[in-house]
Design brief:
The complex is a heterodimer of chains A (371) and B (118). Chain A is α+β, with helices and mostly antiparallel strands and 371 residues long. Chain A has nine helices and 19 strands. In chain A, strand 5 and strand 6 form a beta hairpin. Classes of the chains: A alpha+beta (371), B alpha+beta (118). Chain A: It catalyses: N(6)-[(R)-S(8)-aminomethyldihydrolipoyl]-L-lysyl-[protein] + (6S)-5,6,7,8-tetrahydrofolate = N(6)-[(R)-dihydrolipoyl]-L-lysyl-[protein] + (6R)-5,10-methylene-5,6,7,8-tetrahydrofolate + NH4(+).
């Protein structure tokens, strides 16, 4: 363990007070649920607002002349074209075209702010430092990260931090709360309108309590975070995205800027370009799709998919699956051969029995962002 | 009411035993979203997996508490698995007969189970 993984989550005391059930995640003790339970927490975020502690995630500042251009060598993303005060989804890629991590990158004027997965942040730092030898790359373990998500998020945050309600989806900016500097983006991982708020550790507890004092805001654990993002069709690194899966297979072509694709002004020139450019032109062999089990039994990660009830060789795998509280039925996502159309029936092996499952378009829940 | 170390409750009346899971177990599982029940008439062996319970968190099983035969299953749970979370001690999963009724007497009573579950 290095220094970072020994730092307790800044809100540990608050989680205990709120009755959070703690589980190990990404090297931290994280709340998987509170007394309300996963189902109620999920539905609360869809109808009111929820507060998530995601302080395990890595907040990385990349600075120096030409930082955006340099980052484009590590990501198949249009970073140079990202306007100041804006954020976009991005991917760090590997030499063979797989995904090292997915992230958010924001243009904060004199620097870029990257928010990366907690379990991957130290590997990401290695990739960033090796790939950006002439730039400063710093992991900010001195800050907590909170996500406030749901239809009431705007009102709850505006009451504490005036000016945030005017932000549009994927805007980023610096704000103040009781003299502490906040880095706020209008984004999230739930398919709801909301914000992600970086706050200095010293004031994280007080700021979280201030948000929770709003009548519509409840604390939400990792369990509901997972079911919310699954309904929103968002991939989870480690399950739906791995070092073997390319961004094209994952259906993340939209995240690869036009200028980085074949024919674009800055086409290629990123880690893993051979495979990724090839798949952009020729198409991938497998694709990430939504899956709706016909029955009520959830199909979870690892369930093998078959073309028929008695086929011997599987054609695909479920990479995330469970019950969608807002959908009211089991939902999943996974990889199937390219060309598999929505509406096709496959069979998932659940406890030795082949259960029908229908290929479906993602997302299962239409996002409600403030564009 | 008697209890097993697998967090099941057994309620015997006139040789027919109703089986469910305890409130403690239901709490641990979280919101139940799917239940698969055995076929009526099935001969079961103690320790065999006979019910699948899926919660929002994970899948788990109920093991047969005794040797015997399934006589009835609670179809209401198939349509509304959440009944288990609402009132675990009312939400019976199946009813059975057994060839070894004396084993029930040896199971934990409520006080012993409470101590065990703590």
């Amino acid at each position: 363990m290095d220094d970072a993984t020994q730092i307790p989550l800044p809100l540990a005391e608050l989680h205990a007070e709120l009755g959070g059930k703690m589980v190990p995640f990404a090297g931290y003790a994280m709340p998987v649920q509170y007394p309300a339970g996963v189902m109620a927490e999920h539905l609360h975020v869809r109808t009111r607002a929820g507060l998530f502690d995601v302080s395990h995630m890595g907040q990385v500042i990349v600075a120096g002349d030409g930082a955006a251009s340099a980052l484009e060598r590590l990501m198949p993303v249009n970073v140079v074209g990202l306007a100041e005060g804006r954020q976009r989804y991005g991917l760090l890629t590997l030499p063979d075209g797989g995904v090292a991590d997915d992230l958010m990158v924001a243009n904060r004027g004199d620097h870029l702010l990257l928010v990366v997965n907690g379990a991957m942040k130290h590997l990401d730092m290695d990739i960033l430092r090796a790939g950006l030898p002439d730039h400063s790359v710093e992991l900010h373990d001195d800050r907590a990260l909170l996500a406030l998500q749901g239809p009431s998020a705007e009102a709850a945050l505006e009451g504490l931090v005036p000016g945030t309600a005017a932000m549009r989806f994927m805007d980023v900016g610096g704000f103040e709360w009781q003299e502490a500097d906040l880095w706020i983006s209008r984004s999230g991982y739930t398919g709801e309108d909301g914000f992600e708020i970086s706050v200095p550790i010293e004031v994280a507890d007080a700021f979280a309590r201030a948000l929770l004092s709003h009548e519509d805001v409840l604390p939400i654990g990792l369990g509901a975070r997972d079911s919310l993002r699954l309904e929103a069709g968002m991939p989870l690194y480690g399950q739906d995205l791995t070092p073997e899966i390319s961004p094209v297979e994952a259906g993340l072509n939209w995240a690869i800027g036009k200028v980085r694709r074949p024919g674009g002004a800055r086409a290629g020139g990123f880690t893993g370009e051979d495979r990724i450019l090839h798949e952009l032109t020729e198409g991938p062999e497998r694709i990430r799709v939504g899956l709706r089990p016909d029955g009520r039994a959830p199909m979870r990660m690892g369930v093998m998919l078959y073309e028929t009830e008695d086929a011997v060789a599987p054609v695909g795998t479920v990479t995330s699956g469970g019950f969608g509280p807002s959908v009211g039925a089991p939902i999943a996502m996974g990889y199937v051969p390219a060309g598999t159309q929505a509406g096709v029936t496959l069979y998932g092996d659940v406890r030795g029995r082949r259960m029908p499952v229908t290929v479906a378009d993602l997302p299962f829940h239409q996002p409600r962002y403030k564009r | 009411m008697k209890y097993t170390e697998e967090h099941e409750w057994l309620d015997e009346a006139d040789g027919i035993i109703s089986v469910g899971i305890t409130e403690h177990a239901a709490k641990q599982l979280g919101d139940v979203v799917f239940i698969e029940l055995p076929d009526v008439g099935r001969e079961i062996t103690k320790g065999e997996e006979i019910v699948v319970i899926e919660s929002v968190k994970a899948a788990s099983d109920i093991l047969a508490p005794l040797d015997g035969e399934i006589t009835e299953v609670n179809e209401a749970l198939i349509d509304n698995p959440g009944l288990v979370n609402e009132d675990a001690e009312a939400a019976w999963f199946f009813r059975m007969t057994t060839s070894t009724p004396e084993e029930i007497d040896a199971m934990m009573d409520e006080d012993a189970y409470k101590e065990f579950a703590e």
